[in-house]
Amino acid sequence: MNTIFGIINALLTLLVLAIFVRALLSWFYPVGKDPWTKLLVDITEPILAPIRNVLARIMPIPMDFSPIVAWLLIVLLQNLLSRAYYGG
Q1: In whole angstroms, what is the distance from residue 36 CA to residue 24 CA?
Q2: Are 38 and 16 in contact (CB under 8 A)?
Q3: Where are the domains of the chain?
Q4: 58: helix, coil or strand?
Q5: Contacts for 88 with CB less than 8 Å, ≥ 6 apart
Q6: pLDDT tens-digit series, residues 14-39
Q7: Of 66, 61, 53, nearest to 23 (Cα)?
Q8: What is the pLDDT of residue 1?
Q9: Whole-number Cα distances in Å, 49 to 7, 19, 44, 53, 88
Q10: Residue 65 — left, alpha, or beta (φ > 0 → left; ψ -120 to 50 → alpha)?
């Protein structure tokens, strides 16, 4: 069970890192135009698109806050899993 928890936690951490890199790159570089950034989009878009759609309905502003919301949700999920695993 320890191994499964570790793998899930590591994958969630990598997902947070991928979202952060994609958001940072989007400020300076056209994301999705080359194979590496396309991979980032392919990994992160299934998480960001639903959040983006909900945020567009709640607050229709031109800024994309979906990476921040995704990060918060993933960190919350990691904390919940950690508490469930370690019993806290």
Answers
A1: 14
A2: no
A3: 2-86
A4: helix
A5: 82
A6: 999 999 999 999 999 888 889 999 99
A7: 66
A8: 66
A9: 24, 12, 8, 6, 33
A10: alpha
> Model pTM greater than 0.90?
no
User: Over the stretch 51-69, which tens digit does the pLDDT of each residue have?
Assistant: 999 999 998 888 899 999 9
How long a stretch of residues is the chain? 88
Q: Which residue has the tokens 């194979």?
A: 35
- In one letter, which amino acid is 47? I
Q: What dihedral angle (degrees, nearest 10) is formed by the CA atoms of 47, 49, 55, 56?
A: 180
Residue linked to tokens 């958001």: 23
Contact 43, 18 (CB under 8 A): yes
